Amino acid sequence: xxxxxxxxxxxxxxxxxxxxxxxxxxxxxxxxxxxxxxxxxxxxxxxxxxxxxxxxxxxxxxxxxxxxxxxxxxxxxxxxxxxxxxxxxxxxxxxxxxxxxxxxxxxxxxxxxxxxxxxxxxxxxxxxxxxxxxxxxxxxxxxxxxxxxxxxxxxxxxxxxxxxxxxxxxxxxxxxxxxxxxxxxxxxxxxxxxxxxxxxxxxxxxxxxxxxxxxxxxxxxxxxxxxxxxxxxxxxxxxxxxxxxxxxxxxxxxxxxxxxxxxxxxxxxxxxxxxxxxxxxxxxxxxxxxxxxxxxxxxxxxxxxxxxxxxxxxxxxxxxxxxxxxxxxxx
Length: 331
Hints:
Layout: E1 2-9, H1 12-25, E2 31-37, H2 43-50, E3 53-57, H3 62-71, E4 78-81, E5 86-88, H4 92-103, E6 109-116, E7 125-127, H5 139-148, E8 154-155, E9 162-165, H6 166-172, H7 185-195, E10 201-211, H8 225-233, H9 237-245, H10 264-273, H11 280-286, H12 303-314, H13 318-328
Parallel strand pairs: 1-2, 1-4, 2-3, 6-7, 6-10
Antiparallel strand pairs: 4-9, 5-10, 6-9, 8-10
Helix pairs in contact: 7-9, 12-13
């Protein structure tokens, strides 16, 4: 059904719980693909032992590069970006499938109802505390709670996890790396979707995901994504969300501008921000030697290794495949 892309940075207990929830609570067969940032906590060894397809970088390359790298392995028609600190509840994927069937086209951005342990002030997120991590997670309580939920579908809302067609993902070029390590990369992605005509931004009420909450972003130096968004697009995130994305819930087809128009305040701020070194200052402050963290394939691939992997795959020899990957370098 879906190619589920999960970037992970030394977050193994959460990743295990996330993937376990997919395996136990999915109605359909999905392709799970992980990008391992560094993996010094045992993540790399674990995904190999589990036979999970993955890409790998020497260090944390941020969500934009991680997603773009792992997306090249996706083979299903629909791509789901899932954080490693999320937990899927029963029916999450069946609800997505039902919503897609009613749409009749693939130009859409679907997301789940998001449940978090703390009230962050986001009106689109449900606050209900079932634990802040694997150690104190109340799964039984969560499943009882979500089974009784009656949340409706809501248009004009773009949350996580994000489900888009693989065609749409590649049409807009995935995530923009200038937003590394990732703040406001979601909003930038929404703008790119808007420019190619996507007007369906829907939170699917029957798809419910628990989010422990920003377990990786709390460990990094954040980029000033709001300013970078304004410098790139000439409009603030707030104005774009309020005047365009949210308006898709009620606006008649074809009445919203194909190219957003920035109000005077946004244009004035852009002039002021032009004195700064965006995005290079934030990129350098976050990771001054990003190329050293990346891994790349051989020019024409390792044909001998690929043939050996194919043969091992036919006989289900996962350990043999993993040893070949270790020798040749991960995908």
